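Homework-ish question, so no full write-ups if that breaks the rules, but can someone show me the predicted structure for this set?
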Amino acid sequence: MQKYSISVLLAGALLIAGCGGSATAKSTSGGGGGGGTTSGTSNTMAIAVNGGPTVGQAGGGIYPNAAFASATICAPGSTSSCVTVSGLLLDTGSTGLRVLQSALSSLNLPSVDASNSSAAYDCVSFVDGSYLWGPVQGADVTLGAETATNLPIQVISTSNDAPSSCSNGSTINANSLATLGANGILGVGVEQTDCFYEGASACDPAFGLASPPYPAYYTCSGTSCSPAFIATGNQVANPVVLFPKDNNGVIVELPAVSGSAASVSGSLVFGIGTESNNQLPSGASIFTLTCDDFGTTFDGQKYDITNASNCSGSGSFIDSGSNGLYFPDASNIPTCPKDTSVGDLSSFYCPSSTENLSATMTAADGTTKNVSFSVQNAESLFTGSTDSDAALGGLAGTNPSGVGFDWGLPFFYGVNLYSAIDGQAMPSGAPAAPWWAY
Amino acid sequence: MPNSIAKTWRRVTRINMNMSNGSPSFCRPLGSVAAFVALLAITMGSSLPAFASLGGNAGSIQADTARMGASVNVSNTDNCEVHQLQSPAGTVVNEYISSSGTVFAVSWHGPFLPDMQQILGSYFQQYSAALSSQSRQYGHRPLNIRQSGLVVQTGGHMRAHWGRVYVPSLVPEGVSAEQLQ
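A: Not a homework solution, just the prediction itself:
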């Protein structure tokens, strides 16, 4: 898709990514591919929308509108048995660190057990039909200068050995760089672990289910794997929660993008109201959540949870792991052709000229805020003079009616987005998490 | 909260009446009518109830409903019927049944994906093929796959999945499958 490799340009961009203050280089061994840095002030780390680790690879291309980060992953208690993995997709819409087995090189990590004392495996289903499968293993994970000790992570299995109840009809096992477009996913969402929902984890036996929910956690006997319960402390966890400090949330900071840009650099800041650089601005609007969603009114339609008791309705959410703005076609913006030089784009919008639109976000407590956004012609963005740009501010597509408003990465440009983790202590005056604020 | 959750799938059944007030006619999800749900809520015993699946017949579900003594009002103007099942872990599955008794659409929302083999039945392979047919562009995003024989739509995020699968040729006249939640 791209005309030329932008990896050289990006390496430079990453090294100067705004951290400020004294940068301390971490000493690590091993390697997880070029690019990326883990240096920074104590609670800040560099992120970049740079097309990701597939740029310049044969058959690869630019992963548009995805912010990438690095993590240093060590065997628990070790400072020498470590690998620094770059090209991790920063995802505020999921929770937990998941790393391709191939990106961990020869690093050996201990298994983590399910409640039946067998090694646990994790299965994650994404809305695009892809899934990730692999063992849960313990690691000391350093992001910037903050370390989560004994963090359960998912190691994405290279082989196709997921049970059928995990793949669940999907053939898209995103277990390689070519299929994932990243070396892993860094999920720093609003929940404690990947099985948490509305303040509780149904995967923990204490939740009280008669049988383990699936697809989620499994244990295996030979090649036969079955759903299993797993204690909350052993579930693939939000790394931020296991930091000794600055552990109640994150701020995603990305600069504004006018139209599109080859790449942009920003910061992931840890903690909310815990340091001088992560105070909640007095003018920020806080969006408390119902069922991890809030409301968006667009073109006369309100997309929100309508029944909190079973979370039905069409909620809206902010998700750095969605690479566009996705919303129901309420205003008859034309969609793109099925047949284009870059494949079927029919789920993206293709207005003849840039559409400048606005919507109103509504929090669970009634707080509202107007948001302006632009929709550009996706086919032009992918095939025109911007075809080598990684940051596409006007990329948008359809959500089926019934799903609400997915505020993906374009929303983050020019915004410092605060994401507060459920169950963690909040600064005085702030509501109980989970919430988003900006 | 855990104590209030039944240990097995909970079935809620409702017969929808054809709407005659000029608004488009379609099956509404049960969640929007709390009183109705309370009236008809049935807590199952210890076994998992049989699902009807996409393209299949609703007879077994109606038999189950009758055996359990559910009170259901049937109207002659019905053109659509919803069977709603809620798993103890919180996932809701809606099965939409035409007046001829065929499941023409299924939808789901909740923290865990439903068992697709179970709810899609004979359409499972077609669903799988539809997922594989997408051109693989990097980026997690909702799906809106429209094939002549099957429409697959999904969205949401971790622990908040949403999806709908329907067979266009089975959708009753006057029902907008796009409106099925």
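Now go work out the reasoning yourself. Hint: Strands of chain B lie at 10-16, 41-42, 80-86, 92-97, 103-110, 143-146, 151-157, 160-166.
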